[in-house]
Amino acid sequence: VSVDDCVCKPIFLTNGTGYDKECNCPSGYVYLPELAACRPTRPGEYKSNQGNEPPLLCSDIDDHLTTKAFGAEGADACECAHESFVLVGAGGTAQCLCPAGTGYDSVAQACCPCPLGTFKPLLALEACTACA
Predict the structure, then answer these.
(1) Could you tell me the superkingdom of the organism this chain comes from (predicted)?
(2) What is the pLDDT of residues 51-80, one digit of tens each?
(3) Consecutive H or E run containing 32
(4) Which among 53, 55, 75 has a CA at the least distance from the CA of 65?
(5) How many C-beta atoms surround the C-beta of residue 105 within 10 A?
(6) Is the predicted pLDDT of residue 3 greater than 60, yes or no?
(7) In angstroms, rounded to a whole number, what is the distance separating the alpha carbons of residues 67 and 111?
(8) Residue 123 near residue 84, CB atoms below 8 Å
């Protein structure tokens, strides 16, 4: 038996040979050193490459982005956390904005229809403006 006969645990991917052999988590999975195991990324996280580095967060791209499933493999899996938002752009440049006629409510963290006597004509993450 030699070091070349060593195999990685299930789900791990093997890189290298001999003493340089590494067991890495696949994309969409995060390494847990305390368990020497991989777990799927959680909602809000993604990991697009093979390796044992920590996941990236959708909220680092835009505060209102998340993933809604486990095992996300890239920033393209990030989507707006609330259905009232409109997703503009994709991946690392994605933004969640409020459509025209709705304003951003920081308490609800969602886009809400402009109240009577206010308006918002543009796609933006802004409050409604009072009519003049």
Answers:
(1) Eukaryota
(2) 899 999 999 999 999 999 999 999 999 999
(3) strand 29-32
(4) 75
(5) 14
(6) no
(7) 19
(8) no
Smallest CA-to-CA distance from 59 within 36, 31, 78 is with 78
Mean pLDDT, rounded, of the chain: 89
C-alpha to C-alpha distances, 94 to 42, 79, 103, 130, 131, nearest whole angstrom: 19, 8, 19, 29, 31
Six-digit token string for 95: 């933004």
* Dihedral angle over CA of 45, 90, 60, 56, nearest 10: 30
Q: How far apart are CA 68 and CA 81, in angstroms?
A: 8
Q: How high is the pLDDT of residue 13?
A: 64
